[in-house]
Design a protein that fits this description.
By secondary structure, this protein is an alpha+beta fold. It is built from 6 helices and 5 strands, in the order H-H-H-E-E-E-H-E-E-H-H. The protein has a 5-stranded antiparallel beta sheet with strand order 1-2-3-5-4. Helix 4 (96-117) crosses helix 6.
Length: 181
C-alpha cells in the first residue's frame, strides 16, 4: 500500500524534505554553448566582449592590452578574469607588454577585491588547454577567485550547486566603482 502523503503531486515527483535551489542559467555552460570552435577568433566570446557596453559585458576595467571581466559562471562573488584583447591561446605567445599588463591588472584586481569585499585569500591561475580544464582554450584568460574561510561547503559537493550571495551586475558595479579609487 502506498502512503498517500508520498504520492507524486501533478507528476512532479515524490515529496521529500529537501529544498531545491534551481540554477537553470548554468545549463548553457554545461552544454558548452557559446564556446568557439578551434583557434578561430570569430565567435570567441572574449573577442566580442570589448565591443559591448561594460555593464552588459560585465567588464570591470579596460587597459591597453588586457581587460578585467567578471566570470559569467563564477566560483565565488568577484570571480574575475584578466583577458588579453588579442586572440591568443598560450601564455608563451603573449608579448612582453601584454604579460606585464596582465600581471599588473591581476595585482590591481587583488587590491580592489580586498578593499570592497575583504576576502581571506585568492586562487589565481590559468588553465592552458582543454585537458588542463580551460573552458575556452582558444583565448587565454587568467582567473582571480576571491576566497573566504568556509566559502566551500556541502552544496557544490553534494548538490552540485554553488550558492552566490550577489548578482553579477551588482558585483561588477562594486568592483568597477572601486577600480579607479
Amino acid at each position: 500500500m502506498v502512503d498517500p502523503e508520498f504520492v507524486p503531486q501533478d507528476g512532479v515527483g515524490i515529496p521529500d524534505a529537501l529544498q531545491r535551489l534551481w540554477t537553470p542559467h548554468r545549463m548553457a555552460y554545461i552544454k558548452g554553448e557559446g564556446k568557439p570552435d578551434g583557434d578561430d577568433a570569430r565567435g570567441c566570446p572574449f573577442c566580442g566582449l570589448p565591443d559591448l557596453d561594460d555593464a552588459e559585458a560585465l567588464i570591470v576595467a579596460r587597459g591597453k592590452a588586457v581587460y578585467a571581466v567578471l566570470n559569467l559562471y563564477p566560483y565565488n562573488p568577484g570571480h574575475l578574469m584578466v583577458v588579453p584583447y588579442r586572440h591568443v591561446a598560450d601564455f608563451t605567445e603573449l608579448t612582453a607588454g601584454e604579460t606585464v599588463e596582465l600581471a599588473e591588472f591581476t595585482q590591481h584586481a587583488m587590491r580592489v577585491g580586498r578593499r570592497v569585499s575583504a576576502p581571506h585569500g585568492f586562487n589565481i591561475g590559468m588553465n592552458q588547454g582543454v585537458v588542463a580544464g580551460a573552458g575556452i582554450a582558444a583565448h587565454l584568460h587568467q582567473h582571480l577567485v576571491p576566497r573566504w574561510g568556509g566559502d566551500a561547503n556541502f552544496m557544490p559537493v553534494v548538490g552540485h550547486t554553488k550558492v552566490l550571495p550577489q548578482l553579477l551586475g551588482d558585483t561588477r558595479r562594486m568592483l568597477a566603482d572601486a577600480w579607479e579609487g
